[in-house]
Amino acid sequence: MSIIKSYAAKAAGADLEVWEYEAGDLLPDDVEVQVDYCGICHSDLSMIDNEWGMSSYPLVAGHEVIGRVAALGTAAADKGLKVGQRVGIGWTARSCNHCDACISGNQINCLEGSLPTIMNRGGFADKLRADWQWVIPLPENIDIATAGPLLCGGITVFKPLLLNSVTATSRVGVIGIGGLGHIAIQLLRAMGAEVTAFSSNPAKEQEVREMGADRVVNSRDPEALKALAGQFDLIINTVSVDLDWQPYFEALAYGGNFHTVGVVMKPLQVPAFTLIGGDRRVSGSATGNPAELRTLMRFAGRAKVAPVTEEYPMSRINDALRHVREGKARYRVVLKADF
Question: Taking every annotated instance into account, which residue ranges of this chain make up the domain Enoyl reductase (ER) (predicted)?
Fold first, then answer.
């Protein structure tokens, strides 16, 4: 039996309040993790506000957790994790482990519905729990103060690179240089790809180049977009606003793929001939499975890929959430536990 101290939303859109809850007995496959840091993601805001119509309250958000193993369930005790070990937990806390998707290693697409960490009561707390396979061991060479956003924002942009077999010869465009896009650029640089950043903010150009972009294009300049026709093997969209997508479709090379991880609420208008002419594709993906998360954390540690973060004490969580809501974060906000 464990009492967990958290910051919870009691209603949609409400400020977070201190809330204690009884976690019950540790399930056999569970790991209890002591939280050291937890990033803030726009998905946390969407859940707090019930933007997607799936929230229940009190809601404890937070799914970019860096912490230490505090306790192991009886079945989790022989899975390689040790009490005190540094670990991370991302978007997913549980999956069924027996459906076709789980058995094939696609636990993120669990046919019975993988459970988001937020719905499981997340990391805006002193502790949280998750199934052992979703508790990701961290390499020694990773910066624990900034690593949290890799577990959601990072894996979200890493997954398309794996799905599209990106190599050092790939020509990749990234739309939107915010919380997701700035990590994508660093990952692509570390993989040796040719990287073009599409940004609506020209003031970011020098900073974006320092992150690893070979070229920065003003996404509000129609002529600049038109000049890129047929150049990209892959374009990753990280923004959630609706844009004129046609110039980006036309910027794909033959066999190229437009891949969205940004949750654009309006349908993408894709003329059939845009795809047929050049064997182009449009796709999307969620986050990653446990193996992909482990791969990312090892790669990020070795390649020194680290999100650019601003740190707040968790006791100032409402100030931090407002900072993110107002679009002022450069580029991710991380909370440091101070219970």
Answer: 13-335
Q: Which residues contact 290 (CB under 8 A, 6 or more apart)?
A: 107, 133, 134, 136
Task: Return left, alpha or beta for 228; rule: phi > 0 is left, psi -120 to 50 is alpha, else beta.
Answer: alpha
Structure token digits, residue 95 = 């999956």
| Helix, strand or coil, per DSSP, at residue 190 | helix
Q: What is the separation of C-alpha 258 from the centre of its chain, rounded to a whole number of angstroms?
A: 19
Residues 16, 133: one domain? yes
Phi, psi of 2 (to 5 degrees): -140, 135
Residue with the two structure tokens 């992909």: 292
Rounded CA separation 249/259 (Å): 10
- Cβ pair 23, 120 in contact under 8 A: no
Are 116 and 40 in a shared domain? yes
> What rounded mean pLDDT belongs to the chain?
97
Burial class (CB in 10 A: 0-12, 13-18, 19+), 205: middle
Q: How far apart are CA 239 and CA 258, in angstroms?
A: 13
Please, which pLDDT band fits residue 202 given cuts at 50, 70 and 90?
A: confident
Query: How far, in Å, CA of 185 to CA of 331, rounded?
Result: 13
Kindly tell me if the per-residue pLDDT of 334 is higher than 80. yes
Distance separating alpha carbons of residues 310 and 86, to the nearest angstrom: 21
Q: Do 64 and 209 belong together in one domain?
A: no
CA–CA distance, 305 with 18 (Å, rounded to integer)? 34
Looking at residue 1, its pLDDT comes to: 67
Neighbour tally for 145: CB within 10 Å = 14
Q: b/e map of 25-57 (b: 16 or more CB within 10 Å)?
A: ebeebbbbbbbbbbbbbbbbebbbebbeeebee
pTM of the entire predicted model: 0.97
Residue recorded with tokens 């229940």 = 56
| Three-state DSSP state, 154 | helix
- Domain of 166, in residue numbers: 153-284
